[in-house]
Amino acid sequence: MTTTALVVDDEVDLCRLMQITLTKMGIKSDVAYTLSQARTFWQDNDYDFCLTDLKLPDGSGLELVKEISNSSNIPIAVITAHGSMDLAIEALKLGAFDFVNKPLELPRLRQLVENTLKVIHQDSEIQATPECSPEQKMLDSRLIGNSAVMHPLKNTILKLARSQAPVFLSGASGTGKEVVARLIHDLSPRRDGSFVPVNCGAIPSELMESEFFGHKKGSFTGAVADKQGLFQQADGGTLFLDEVADLPLAMQVKLLRAIQEKTVRAIGDTKEVPVDIRILSATHKDLSQLVQDGAFRQDLYYRINVIELKLPTLNARRDDIPVLAEHFLAMIADDWQLESPLSLTMEACERLQRHDFAGNVRELRNLLERAVTLAETSYIDVSHLGLPDIEPELVNTQEQNHSSAIDSSEPPDRNVENHIDVQSTGQSTKNGEQVIQSSNMATPVEQRVTNLHPYRTNTNHYPSMVQHSSTSNDSSSTNVASTHDEESLLDSTAQQETSKDISGLPELFDGQLPPQGLEHYLQEQEKHLIITALKQTGWNKTQAAELLGTTFRSLRYRMKKLEISEDASD
Fold this sequence. Notes:
The protein has 570 residues and is α/β, with parallel strands linked by helices. Helices cover 45% and strands 14% of the residues. Helix 14 crosses helix 16. The protein is elongated and about 105 Å long. The termini are far apart.
């Protein structure tokens, strides 16, 4: 079946040139010279695509773009005069497929028509098999999830893939911006071209122009050969500018011209080379705020932000966490060459759905990789995830905000034993942890029931904590009281020794400075604290390090530095 097109322009010679070019490509075309004539042709005939000028004698081509885009999915491209880039961007936002600048270059026109024919071919395949088209299968296999926020996102991606307009992907880190960018490329008519991703924040500013536009041999010191830039590598395909907000202002000016004119000039070259690329960009920063702050050029912002696609966070699509976890576990098993992928228990799956994912999908994959490493069987339990226990209030809040999530189970009991036979004991809460304070000790000792790191197995707290009794008979109460008296005596003795040690330090009054300098005074303070911790733990360096909140190696280093003997007898 012969492809048909409608050409709309008030210049007779230009219309004739385009009609001859289309005829050589096997396309039948009709020519309209005014907006009213174009509307008549469109209503009386069926066309596969339309090519229209934006400035017509009796109106604007934008009106035709809007009417065709609202009534059908037929591709429509626009012709703009040199310097009318703002009108072209407005046409793209209204639904135009692509644009070409005047004076008209035949290679650029042929490229636009070829891309249009690819879109027409894709649309015909989707209409023939709407439920099992290759595009839909690719979309479902690479963009995992069927939650409420994912359906409109997938539909938007399919629409964006048909267009050649620049797309700006916004969203938090780890939401899958590069995955979506690759999908847009692979679903577009440019799928046979290259997809060139570049992290704008990872390129040194002095090498940025060479990386983007290339250079000629001998153009600067170290240029021993010609080099293609990223724009030339992406010719015929898609250039993905990740973290575009990190571009320096000097480079933003050069990038703006390359996007607008679709030509680049390598460093050391004397002529510009045309490139046919589509620009996709992304950042996790607020680009509009950077424009207001003067950190990002406003004109470049409007060039790359023709269509904005905001990606949802993982917390906004908790229903997708089970299928995402299954997908990642299968990928991990394949990458690590495991016999079969591991499975999540029901409790682990529910715990993942209640977790607050600050790192989004990337954090979920990292959690699963750690869980696969720690799991000793084919099942991943809650303990393998290494996630902290959540407060009941947080569970209730998440259930209210996400009614479609799986019903949460009761969090594990984190309370200590109820039978505490200690005189004058008070309880308080600090930072979500239960704290038990003993009032008859010189310095209150706090016992916290905390969530341990998954790699830590030691749960001892030093100095020795109040002993708990689970029995209520008289002999047990007597033993607990006796133990408490002994501990109080030991603590009192340690505190007296500590007081003796600290008394050796010069007492400083307000406005007085250490006589031997700050460094010597701080070292003496540190030395006395370390000795105090060692005495309280019976010169057990591992326990003393935990009491001081440092590591064993750090304590050994400080003892050697401060000339503290490792033997209590010394």
